[in-house]
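Q: I'm teaching a short session on how sequence maps to structure, and I want students to see two examples side by side rather than one. Could you give me a first protein with its sequence written out and its structure tokens following it? Keep the formatting plain so it prints cleanly on a handout.
A: Of course. Example one:
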Amino acid sequence: MRSSKAVVVTGKDTLELRSFPVPELTDDGGILRLEACGMCGTDLTFFYGRLKNTRYPFILGHEPVGIVDSLTHAAAKRWGVRAGDRVAVQYFTCGVCGACRSGQQGNCETATNSLGFTPVTTPPALWGGYAEYMYIPPNARVFPMSKDLLPQTAALFNALAGAISWTVERPGLQRGQTLAIMGPGQRGLASIVAAKDAGASFVAVVGRGRNPYKLQLAKELGADLVIDSDTTNPADAIKKVLGRGVDIAVDLTPAAEPLLQAFAVIRGGGIVVEAGGKSGMEVPGFTPDLIRSKNATIMGTKGPTISGLEKSIALLESHKHPELERLVTHTFPLERAREALLTLAGDYPDRKAMNVVMLPGQQAAP
């Protein structure tokens, strides 16, 4: 029987490289040979054990791209793919609840297993993308992708889908509208491209000066205004340029203060989208009056939509925005998973990390 190496989180801040059997398909589903797996802040949240009731041990990785190694006839018909095709995999869902039927698979009401966070004690163990092979259950959503993209570029599909879903789809961004993005992380920077592609007339990015390379990259990706919130009041800076606040503000940060800043930078009747997971923290100073005084609409959002994923892949395949490739700053093999996570977390400031990608086929340094 074939085996697959995989990076297993065995407890808080603890990783092991283990080997698991690659299952034989006897019922339904497929096997993916991993080419790449994007990494994001959610991986860090689970790696550091910041959420209660985390079920250890599990294989990280919920942004996988790879080649279909094998699949059943039923799966091939369901997904419209065959062995040898490149695909991205997202969501293990029921497919029949209200959320699934509306394309909001991230809000599935009955799913029991999750991509990248299901314990390895649940057969067949290979549920995450930090591995050589991954099991694709029948209830997964599978998206065909072109093979002419580099694996690390293809792995941007999730970050870009989040940007499209949260910045464009959720607030209903219209051509000519103005936008502020709180947080120049990988999804915040991807949101610049997504918003401009959707017709936004003005995009401001708000971030902290401790990471100047992120603010510089925001300028290079097309932001009309980049604000260092450590030295400049974002609302004052935007009003100085526009004469008023923006139509939409999207908070993509794990911190509390940017949510307050989002309310400060919108115009009267504006929209605030809260997309940044805050690991249960409270927001000091947040009161309902912030909503009332601006006559604001506040929207929560979780995970990219199916349509956002489809648009993201189409946009990557179009090669319309080659600047997106600049978001990929580091790649790592499985054997250097801890270093990869610490790079993403910013523990190596000199590395200027943005999008960090796991490449299971990449050789480890001697």
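Q: Perfect. Now a second example for contrast.
A: Example two:
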Amino acid sequence: MSPLSQRRLERIVDAFSRVKLLVVGDVMLDEYLWGDVERVSQEAPVPVVHVRRESIALGGAGNVVRNVVGLGGRCACAATVGEDSAGRLIGDLLKDHGVEASGIVRVPGRPTTRKTRVEARSQQIVRFDRETTGPLPRAAARRLLASVEATLPSMDGVILEDYGKGVLERSIARGVISRCRAVAVPVYVDPKEELRAFRGATLIKPNLREAEALTGIVARSPDGLARAIQRLRRATGGADVVVTRGAAGMTVAEGDAELRDVPTAAPEVFDIQGCGDTSIAALALARCCGASLLEAAVIANAAAGVVARKVGTAIATPAEVCAALGSVVAAVRAGPRSAS
């Protein structure tokens, strides 16, 4: 196995600007109320948050879109929203990011997934969710698949981002993958609750807890993790597997090669929210640039580490990733650490 070259990794990150990805999945609107806590309510033993400002951002699959663009790539999005104000805001935000939004399907009677978070003293106080998780109406599913098929000829890769909100139910996921395979476009999957739907994918990236839930195998030991990854590969028809493991980095399985633990640097983590979205975006971009799975995992570890230092669903820039690569490469050369 060739040694890691930091200079080559930096060249790969620089090449992200030549890649165009299609993100398909559960797009959401993230709303934030930012404030201070100075007292407890007299009405109930809860903090009173004095709201100082409000903000909105793309969430769910939309946060993957943000990360692809933030990392320097080009992006299109295929998803569904409701005929409501939140759906219109998502359309506006996609345009603000320079993202093609022709694949956004409006579904009458189905609300846009909307999450409202209250943040104070650099931590989340409470979150309110407004959503529907049932499958899409057949007409909406057909329109979504048609939009994917029309977009594929100009794409270098497709990310399927499943948050379990109904967009990537089995028939849609399989329809997207079959269309991608027909035109030799790689598919990178960030799964939630389903596995068989993603058979034929190029790569699947669960976190450790998701890997356990998807396979029914406790994966906290090397042997358990190896068995879980083997089951993931079988269920997806031999996809490459990346299991993200928080501060322990990632474990990767490429083709028939042995499993490889890919440690990461140990930053002071402020907020892990959205790190999985960053990881799948960086993995897909790097692989589309010709990176090996090891190289892609190192780059994804660096990008996720940048985001972990920020509050809220954040993004990493190419410059920030390149600045973080040195410590991550050093961690890989030093060898794996315990996940605990």
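Q: What should students look for in example two?
A: Point them to this: The chain has one domain: 6-334. Also worth mentioning: Residues 6-334 form a domain with the UDP-N-acetylmuramoyl-L-alanine:D-glutamate ligase fold (CATH 3.40.1190.20).
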